[in-house]
Amino acid sequence: MSQAILAYLALETAQARYQCGPEQLDVEQRSKVEETARRRYALERRILETAEATGVTVQQADIDRACAQIAERYEDRDSYRLALAQIGLDPPGLSVAIRHALRVEAVLARVGARADAVEDQDVRAWYDANRDKLVRPEKRVARQILITINPDYPENTAQAARARLEAIAAELGPQPEVERFAECALRHSECPSALEGGKLGSLPAGQLYAELDTALFSLTPGALSPVLESPFGLHLIYCEEIEPGHEPSFEALAGRIRLALNRERAQQVQKRWIAELRAAMATNAV
Predict the structure, then answer these.
(1) Cα 91 from chain centroid?
(2) Which domains can be identified in the chain, with CATH numbers?
(3) Which residue in 32, 39, 193, 278 has its CB near the most CB atoms, within 10 A?
(4) Which burial class, exposed, middle or buried, applies to 156 when counting CB atoms under 10 A from its CB (0-12, 13-18, 19+)?
């Protein structure tokens, strides 16, 4: 039983630390993972010996559901069993390990439930303190045509490049259709975005060079900028769409904020309780 649990804890540790299974680790990494798993198992056994674990049970249906979710990651039953065998598990052993994990989780949930409930004023205080972080800024869906400046090529000297771009701007007009601009970008732009019709994406203020940024955020939807210059060269900027900024209301977020604050308080209580358990274990080991 303990070997199955240790194997499962080693798997979780390897995935969290190295994003792979323990069978893919080198000797040193595997040694560290196994040591961490042993320490974690010792702590979890102590958790299940506490008064808080009294009466904690796990339904077989919950164990079966968790095991089934793991099995679903594999193409078939054989590949599932093979993957388990590579980490020292089989389906019955996995069931034992899952039962252990769910029991520990249940005890910690019971401990976390001791946390003080979040009050309405706590929710409001968090919202007010973080209001500036919740605002979604206005964005512009932008496209561009870029002509680079390179004196080694006659068509890309500063004068020639400007003349080329001004001719393109005259051809497009001040309010071109997006399809027409995209076609011109594909034909004329020297930016990799030309392959997508010059599309730069949805941009908040401050993402472009200052000259381009100022021009973009002064344009109305469908409008074309004059010829602009940046260290990359000469640009025509097109505003395809304006995505308005938005500040979520307190009422819209209150429920989510309360859940997050309750979770945070529960975790703090759990951490303090586990720290006390570890301290007691260290004292007893002396």
Answers:
(1) 32
(2) 2-112 (1.10.4030), 117-135+247-286 (no CATH), 142-243 (3.10.50.40)
(3) 193
(4) middle
pLDDT tens-digit map of 33-65: 999 999 999 999 999 999 999 999 999 999 999
Q: Which residues pair with 201 in a beta bridge?
A: 142
Neighbours of 117 (CB within 10 A): 10
- Residue 241 is classified by DSSP as E
> What is the pLDDT at residue 207?
94
Q: At what angle do helices 27-49 and 250-285 cross, to 10 degrees?
A: 90
* Per-residue tokens: 187: 């034909």
What average pLDDT is seen over the chain?
Answer: 94
Distance CA 237, CA 213 (A): 9
When pLDDT is averaged across residues 233-244 and rounded to a whole number, the result is: 96
d(CA 233, CA 157): 10
Long-range contacts of 156-164 (CB under 8 A, 24+ apart): 161/233, 161/234, 162/227, 162/234, 164/188
pLDDT reading at 286 higher than 70: no
Element (H, E) at 144: strand 139-147
Distance of alpha carbon 198 from alpha carbon 238, whole angstroms: 9
User: Across-strand partners of 140?
Assistant: 203, 242
